[in-house]
Amino acid sequence: MKNLLNIFLSLLLLILVGCNGPSQKEYDRLKNENNKLKSELEECKFGSEKLLNEAKYYYEQKNYSNAMVQLNLLLEKHPSSKEAKVAIQLLENVESAIKAETLALEAKIKKEQEEKDRNINKALSNLVAKYNEFSDATFYRDKSSPAYVNRNGFFLTFNHSGKKGSSTPSNIYLEIQYYADDWLFINSYQFSIDGKNYSLYPTKVEKDNGDGGMIWEWCSENLNYNKDAFEIVKAVINSKIAKIRFNGSQYYNDKIISSSEKAALKNVLLAFEALGGKLNY
After folding, report:
1. What is the per-residue pLDDT across 87-144, written as a single tens digit (0 to 9) for each?
2. Is the distance from CB of 159 to CB of 127 less than 8 angstroms?
3. Are residue 57 and residue 134 in the same domain, yes or no?
4. Burial of 142 by CB count in 10 Å (0-12 exposed, 13-18 middle, 19+ buried)?
5. Angstrom distance (rounded) from CA 205 to CA 196
């Protein structure tokens, strides 16, 4: 129809630019033909039957927003048509469907949030949270993990800014503590996990000593920037037997990673993820 109209208008233009121009009668005839073609084109694009059929199609496809557009257009352009009566009823059905979808979506979001809250509460129930007002951060560790460096430890911690649950944690740390009566001067760690060997080279090992001749050597590795440490943590969590060797400058010390330490690793990792924390890989 568009092509026909374009051809007609082109012919009209040729006539108009002719030497003598069209007569008034010819001009009126051409104008009427042009208006008729425009009307046919309009009916082709926005006819009541076409709009209703499109609305029904969108409704069947559950595309209710597009169905509503077509129905409102039909009622605007053809309010007295027989299709308009059908459109009014169909519009009510569309509005009911949209309302039902909205309620279902709200119920789904509420259920997902309740499930998320339950998971967070369950995960945090195994942890100790401590808020530091000076750094405005909350620090988490498993209840079984050492709060102070007065014993050996292999555990996870994480923190987030603000008070409990007020933000998403961004980093999670593997803490390895060595507590004894003599220095090792630790430079690396080796792991034997279900017969498979792993090595970990710490970014930095801190050292301290106290009364009674006891010494501490410890490191803190950010799992977001140390994939090897993360792989070791995962392997330990899923292991039957896991051992760690503290390698010093001259001597070493071996220790079995206990089942409670494995459970603590898992608890902290689950809580970190439940609060929205993510690793870089």
Report:
1. 999 999 999 999 999 999 999 999 999 988 888 888 889 999 999 999 999 999 999 9
2. no
3. no
4. buried
5. 25
